[in-house]
Amino acid sequence: MLAADLPRTDDDSPPSPVAILPATGDRTIPIFDLRWNRHEQSQWSKDAEDHLLLDLRLPQARVAADLACNSVTAFGACGVWDAQMQDRSNYECDWVPAKNDLRCELTTWAEQTKRQTKSWFELLSGNEIPFEVAPNSPKTLQDFAELTERDETWRGRQVEFPGMGKASHILRLAAAHDRVIHLFGEYGKDDASGPEFFYVILSKGARPVLGYLPSLSLFEDDAASASHSQELTIQRRVAEEQTPLLPVSELRIGGQLSFAVKPLLSAPLTHIYQIAAREDNNRAVYWLAIDDQQADGSPLFSMTKIASNVFRYTACASSRSEASAAVITIQKGGDFRALMDVEPSHTTRENNDSGGFEPPDTENGESPEAQCPYSLHLEWNHKQWAMDDPQTHCPAKFSPRELTIADDGTITAKPGTVDDSK
């Protein structure tokens, strides 16, 4: 006989009685699902269905899993909007007699990026279940590069890899010293809206070399920030371990991901490309430099994001754009150099009538110059992307521009709507 009781509470909404059900569908297997409901009331109202998975197969009973299904109702001016942007998760588990375990699939929906992440595991043992690459497909990015080199029909194709999801072959470059470089793009992290980039270097008689390309914003990257440090750490570890460092039991799923490549400079030892990335309606433009003029003889890779049409949710119905190049003028000369007219980051709210950009909040200390356009020169100096000091151009009246990015990376700027409710 199995009975369960919950601790007494003084709440106005005590939990429901505990229901005890077989967890596997086979009543001869002593694994039970203890289930009850409860209600919590605070700034948010939460109805929860709690589950304890109790395993009685051994003399010492153990709780195999503690799960809850939560339904949240938000209140207040900000809570309703913030709740809509919370990530959601769902577990589905089936009993597998051959494994004597529950095989589970976890699906997480990231509202910021509109992507899903799926992962698989055995509930009782805790073992991860690796994602299996399709038959006759490359197992790693290194394999993908070598296969593409042998068979040109694989260029531009997509392959699903563990941890990544679909990885796209973007370009092939025959570089100096008989090296061939292949560039790949895949869905980025759940907290990022753009893709991630990897490259593979093929050399005769040597193993393929895998590398990771940080691709932070040219205008918003802070060398002292945690995100900058994290990207450099990933780059170093990928170079050391020759693996993407992604969970083999996971798969990223997103919108239709595509890339458009435009060569900007092709010299014997220096190659610069513009890469436009698209995922559904989100678009971003990157510049990639591949330079063989290094003292150690190895190629140098450097990538930076110069434009994006993505608005990221911040809080309380507010979203913020990224600072982006609005007009680009490539200048003639010795080294690759461009003049950029930059539109700074702006805020918009979903709950205002106009849907326009908010002017600087001067009452709370925001400087009007923080939302003024500016210009700067960007140059590739064979070591890094170098910028001069920006020159700010503040109009007499707040005049934000709205940017659109075409599939080929062409940027168009037009006057944006201003939120005049403040």
Secondary structure: helix percent: under 10%
Total count of helical runs of at least 4 residues: 3
Rounded to the nearest angstrom, the distance between the terminal CA atoms is 67 Å
Order of helices and strands: EEEEHEEEHEEEEEHEEEEEEEEEEEEEEE
Stretches where pLDDT falls below 50 for ≥5 residues? none
Physical arrangement of strands within the biggest beta sheet: 8-9-10-11-12
Strand content: over 45%
Mean pLDDT: 89
Count of structural domains: 2
- Evaluate the radius of gyration: 26 Å
* Total beta strand runs: 27
Largest sheet: 5 strands, antiparallel
Which structural class best describes the helix and strand composition? mainly beta
The coarse silhouette is flat
Walk me through this protein's architecture:
With 422 residues, this protein is mainly beta. It folds into two domains: 19-122; 141-415, no CATH class. 8% of the residues lie in helices and 46% in strands. The chain contains three helices and 27 strands. It has helices at 76-84, 141-150, 226-241, and strands at 19-22, 31-41, 44-55, 62-74, 88-96, 101-110, 115-122, 158-161, 165-174, 179-186, 196-203, 209-213, 250-253, 257-266, 270-279, 282-291, 300-308, 311-315, 318-321, 324-331, 337-343, 347-349, 374-380, 385-387, 391-392, 401-405, 411-415. The protein has a five-stranded antiparallel β-sheet with strand order 8-9-10-11-12. Strands 20, 21, 23, 24 and 25 form a five-stranded antiparallel β-sheet that branches. Strands 1-2-3-4 form a four-stranded antiparallel β-sheet. The chain starts with 18 loop residues before the first strand and ends in a 7-residue tail after the last strand. The model has no long low-confidence stretch (mean pLDDT 89).
